[in-house]
Amino acid sequence: MATESSVIAWGSGEDGQLGIGNTEDKEWVCVVKALEPYKVRSVVAGSRNSLAICDDGKLFTWGWNQRGTLGHPPETKTENIPSQVKALANVNIVQAAIGGWHCLAVDDQGRAYSWGGNEYGQCGEETERKNDAGRPLRRDIVIPQRCASKLVVCQVAAGGTHSVVLTREGHVWTWGQPWPPGDIKQISVPVRVQGLERVRLIAVGAFHNLALQEDGTLWAWGNNEYGQLGTGDTQPRSQPILVQGLSGLNLVDIAAGGWHSTALTDDGEKLVTSKDSTYLITNIKHHFPMMSINQGLILGESSVTFLVAYATCHLVYGWGRGEHGRLGFGDNDKSSKMVPQKVNLFAGEDIVQISCGGTHSVALTRDGRMFSFGRGDHGRLGYGRRVTAGQPKEVPIDIPPPKKLSDNGDEGHWIAKLVGSGGRHTLAIMEWQT
């Protein structure tokens, strides 16, 4: 069983977002040593900064801080070692999000907080003054403050210049500047998103939004330049519209990157043999058209005796911007997808989480392995090559075992429990299993 944990990071370190005490890029995973004394339960990678939430509700931030994105007045432009957000020390933070240059968090009482850049009202505070051209003057919120104070929030999500929250009643509220063209007036007071009821999960990209309802339907709105709304076209939507191509599927998770989207379903099947070997089969007849189930699995002239047991496994669907291979459809297919399509390259793997970054993605399997794909410069894919790859490839984990366990000679290995992809870097929580 897992007895120790560690936070790892890789990719761009230009702004100190890796948290390793310098600003170097890392092509291979490395340990965020400053977090070793703490039990971290969640990590978030932003465009240029990072945060971690501990079991006791403490919040740590690091990286770019020119706009107050770290939750305290900027003494330097960047900070390369995690530090606790003291303004939130007396509350129990349970979830947080990073936008373009602002952050959101929610505590165990459903109170939401915001800090960072606020020139579009994305922190939920009215912009005070305007310049001669009539544009609002920037007012950074360098100390976290309450936002959406009339709402009881269970999840926060941050876009490029807007914010979205999900309440305990299953309603979605938003404020800020929802997409680049500016066709919709920016707002600093939360406005309820109409047409959504009993929402259980939200995900926000740079300028698009996803909402998964309890009835299993997925809705999207916002910018749609690359088909990231999954509507079959590239027309933006100011109101939620049903995502196409997912009807009849049981969605269990969603994620949004800069300009792409993903969903997980549990509609796959897993075949377990009596020898404890696992074959993940999404479509038995498709993969094994000549299969005969009796006392063995007939594949050509070979036969394997087994006991049959089936269980569901997760399938991955991706849509939106495909440049750099961030959707995972292979090196020969980096085109954008206007509607969700199944990522067949994950056949044989039970994916439990997809984390979408700006131009890359990382998939986490049930047994704790990670696969990365997409843009590869700055080492953001984590396997030593700065090349773009549409083919998912496993991220090698070569970090020392926990010291007190290695001293005792206990054997084990690291498994990933959660992953967070940012603009040009990735974070993950690892656990040691013996």
From TrEMBL:
Q: For the RCC1-like domain, which residue ranges apply?
A: 7-271
* Record's keyword terms, sorted: Guanine-nucleotide releasing factor, Repeat
Which cellular component, as a GO term, is one annotated location? cytoplasm
Q: Where are the RCC repeats?
A: 5-56, 57-109, 110-169, 170-215, 216-267, 314-367, 368-432
- State the superkingdom: Eukaryota
Q: Which PANTHER family did the record assign? A: REGULATOR OF CHROMOSOME CONDENSATION
What is the official name of this protein in its record? Answer: RCC1-like domain-containing protein
Species of origin: Salix brachista
